[in-house]
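Table 4 source record.
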Amino acid sequence: MTFEESIGNAKNAVATLKQAVGRVIVGQSNVVEEVIWGLVAGGHVLLEGAPGLGKTLLVRVLAETLDLRFSRIQFTPDLMPSDVTGTNVLILDPKDRTGGSMFAFQRGPIFGQIVLADEINRATPKTQSALLEAMAEHAVTVAGTRHVLEQPFFVLATENPIEMEGTYTLPEAQLDRFLLKIMVPSPSEDELVEVLSRTTGRAIDTQAKVLTRDGVLSLRALCRDIPVAEPISRYAARLVRASDPTDPSAPPIVKRALRYGAGVRGAQSLILAAKAAALTEGRVNVSFQDIARVAKPALRHRMIRGFEGEADGITTDAIVDALLTHVEARPSNVAREREAAK
């Protein structure tokens, strides 16, 4: 099978997945598409929106359509790290006839393949930190023993806006582990009417599995194989460098509103998400438009506002828009000089 044929098959698989999710989820097409970018790229996704917008339902429906092991963690203020990762418990030794005991590791809910971290910002930072190793290294260390998580491993976390009562700000290290942060909007009038029609009648049948474990792993491998031309990589690098308020190329709004820019992981996320966007549309390479499309979900949670930015109500989305306007989508001077030298 040629590379182009593999890309075509991947596009069909993603279309089938979107159709299956759409049987339950009303509207939110952009949200569904961006979540699938995270799944295909092999990164974790954070969904933010007010309660009742279907964030948890979306994750559950996605888990039903994938032949993967699903687990859910309901984050609360009294949740402990061991409730997430698991712990060693004392049990009777079945091999010891004298009634001796032994320690055995009891796995926590993090040992799933699709893990729903529901209302993640309602737990304390101490408990949130239990996810750091799992999300970064796909492993969990308990009592000095490292346990490798089964692949594919995909964390979908939901959070309520920080203005809501009983929430904690996610630490920067935790936010940086998410490939994408997706904002879930309120439904339109027509969408709300359709929601009422679907949720106040008979229950919808359970979704059929449309992608297996091997299918998901194949999509992820194919996503990594999509080539990115150097001018595209340099465009992503210029966007990230321009988000640094200490960089001479930064626009005035960045220097005024930000304390820290997106960083290296921001650039990596731009490229990976752009590859996923190209793959889901059946294209064999990444374009400048792909970088622009994924810029907000890839960067909005990686930039830290300063006092003036917060006081003036300048959102990170507004800063990304300014970056896209400020940084031209064209080959850089370095790339042009190299082409001229050839």
